[in-house]
Amino acid sequence: MKRSVKFCPNCGSMNIKWLNPQMWSIWKCWDCGYQGAVIIEDGELAEEIREKFLEKLKNEESDFNKEETESNSEE
Description:
Elements: E1 16-20, E2 23-29, E3 35-36, H1 43-74
Antiparallel strand pairs: 1-2, 2-3
C-alpha cells in the first residue's frame, strides 16, 4: 500500500500533522499555523503554493524593513 505525501494548502509545507489523533479530520501545519480539514496530496500543486507563500513572506519582510527604516529616519 502506497502512502501519499500530505502538504499544507496554505504554505505547501510537508510539516503537517493531525492536530489531535482522535480528531483525524483536522490537520495543523507546524510551519504556518494553518488548521483545517483540507490538505493537498499533489506535489506539483504544493510546490507552486510553497513558492507563492515564500515570495509573499519575502515581500512582507521587505515592506516591514522599509517601514522600520523610514520610522527610524524620522526620529
